[in-house]
Amino acid sequence: MAWSFDDTTRRNIASLCAAFARAPSGGAEPELKRAAVAIALTEAEAGGGTTFLLTRRAATLRSHAAQWALPGGRCDDGETQAQAALRELHEELGVGLGEGDVLGLLDDYPTRSGYLITPVVVWVGTSADIVPNPAEVASVHRVALDDIEREGVFSFTTIPESTRRVVRFRHAGHHIHAPTAALIYQFAEVLAGRDTRVAELEQPVFAWK
């Protein structure tokens, strides 16, 4: 379907998130550190369509440098996942939102690098200025929701180091891998009205550290 950027789309996505039955994360490894990312929905630069913000991490970062990522990071003590995602969105891209802009949460995703990531779907108004923090973000990209519904945009492969499938998301000539690809894949499935689980989808070896 076409995702125009308007109140109808906001309500529809909020309803889909509300209908999504999150998987319990009680079985997650206790040593995993809590983290959250924002699936930040905003208007396409050309206007009309709904997109989400995807970043390329700064090459100078100590971990996961130059990798594709959703805005986010580790939860501070006492923060909810939604609060952490909103704080990180502001720190990385200068976008200030409130908890009233949160549309819903997707499943927690355990990473090989020791985190349990909660994706938080948020609505960014057309008036929001996006100002990347160069210490953390090399570039910002708007990915159309229509694009993640296209056939073949997600693919699955295997690696010798694991029996689990590796998920990949193709964007702008690049293969984006899990964790980011897994979170985007589940969001695409939520948009289609499906409760698809992604915790068992594997990450490439370079993302294990």
From TrEMBL:
Residue span(s) of domain Nudix hydrolase: 32-167
| MF-aspect GO terms | coenzyme A diphosphatase activity; metal ion binding
Classification via CDD domains: NUDIX_CoAse_Nudt7 (cd03426)
One protein family per Pfam = NUDIX
Organism, per UniProt?
Bradyrhizobium valentinum
Q: Looking at the keywords, is 4Fe-4S present?
A: no
Cofactor(s) recorded for this entry are:
Mn(2+); Mg(2+)
| Family, per entry | Belongs to the Nudix hydrolase family.
| Alphabetized UniProt keyword annotations | Hydrolase, Magnesium, Manganese, Metal-binding
PANTHER family per record = MITOCHONDRIAL COENZYME A DIPHOSPHATASE NUDT8, NUDIX HYDROLASE
Q: Tell me which InterPro entries the record gives.
A: CoAse, Nudix_hydrolase, NUDIX_hydrolase-like_dom_sf, NUDIX_hydrolase_CS, NUDIX_hydrolase_dom
What name goes with this protein? NUDIX hydrolase
